[in-house]
Amino acid sequence: MERYQKLEKIGEGTYGKVYKARDALSGRLVALKSTQIDREDKGVPSTALREISLLQTLSDSAYVVRLLSVELVVRNSRPRLYLVFEYLDSDLKKFIDEQSSGIPLSDIKRLMYQLCKGIAYCHGHGVMHRDLKPQNLLLDNKNRLLKIADFGLSRAFSIPLKNYTHEVVSLCYRAPEVLLGATHYSTPVDIWSIGCIFAELSLGFPLFPGDSELQQLLHIFRLLGTPDENVWPGISKLRDWHEYPRWKPQKLSEIVPDIGMDGVDLLSKMLQYDPPKRITAKEALEHPFFDDLDKSQV
């Protein structure tokens, strides 16, 4: 690791620290994700191995952050794993926070198209991300390119669906089936998160700003209406379903007015309660919302 000069810490999460660094051989900037391996553990953590494996699967996409190398370093009998990524200048959360006068609709379309393109590639290769949020979407300010990052919670999926944990996705972007305790779910959980990000790009703040699972559900129900068996067959059988207060749906066109009618239509298709009814990422790319986008420049 002597070839990499750490410049500053740029992030820290459950699975380790992330540093901005310079590659002494090439002079290029890189991001180092560092994970301590406890001596009591039996080897490299499964989350790190899974992230490495999935990133290698997705390495050909222009919309997924590129893993450059993997380094295992042992100092004083203390092993540490380093994932070396391409470095990007910013992330979508910082970009949203910096736009004091709002984000132009043309930029929203470009960013949403790139996000749908990247997730369509992931889903097409059997990978669901499970933690989509603005902080995990990196931006190259020079090329105006969005790249999906942080695959630590991602999983390869198969048919029939396996039993998955419901402790995934940051609250503001967590799909209702996960909030209600579903353990069998698939790619629609990512589509719900994309819908939440879509609205946030326009509003400048999260659409459903809950700080607990219950409050998150109530935020969703107040805006989209409280679902029932007619809207979402099987909902009453989910583990954490109760009789919630009955709210009628509000008009999305009044909640997120600046994305136009085509944008509201796309958003409504992403925020369908019944997971199989949600639009897929591949279908979203063909939606009229993107008709006037110059896709050759994306």
TrEMBL record:
Pfam families noted in UniProt: Pkinase (PF00069)
Entry EC no(s): 2.7.11.22
Homology family: Belongs to the protein kinase superfamily. CMGC Ser/Thr protein kinase family. CDC2/CDKX subfamily.
Protein keywords: ATP-binding, Kinase, Nucleotide-binding, Phosphoprotein, Serine/threonine-protein kinase, Transferase
Species the sequence originates in: Ceratopteris richardii
Name of the protein described by the UniProt record: cyclin-dependent kinase
Record keyword Nucleotide-binding present: yes
Catalyzed chemical reaction(s): L-seryl-[protein] + ATP = O-phospho-L-seryl-[protein] + ADP + H(+); L-threonyl-[protein] + ATP = O-phospho-L-threonyl-[protein] + ADP + H(+)
SUPFAM superfamilies assigned: Protein kinase-like (PK-like) (SSF56112)
Taxon lineage: Eukaryota, Viridiplantae, Streptophyta, Embryophyta, Tracheophyta
InterPro entries linked: CDK, Kinase-like_dom_sf, Prot_kinase_dom, Protein_kinase_ATP_BS, Ser/Thr_kinase_AS
GO molecular function: ATP binding; cyclin binding; cyclin-dependent protein serine/threonine kinase activity
GO biological-process terms attached to the record: G1/S transition of mitotic cell cycle; regulation of G2/M transition of mitotic cell cycle; regulation of gene expression; signal transduction
Domain Protein kinase: 4-290
Positions annotated to bind ATP: K33
Top enzyme category: transferase
Gene Ontology cellular component list: cyclin-dependent protein kinase holoenzyme complex; cytoplasm; nucleus
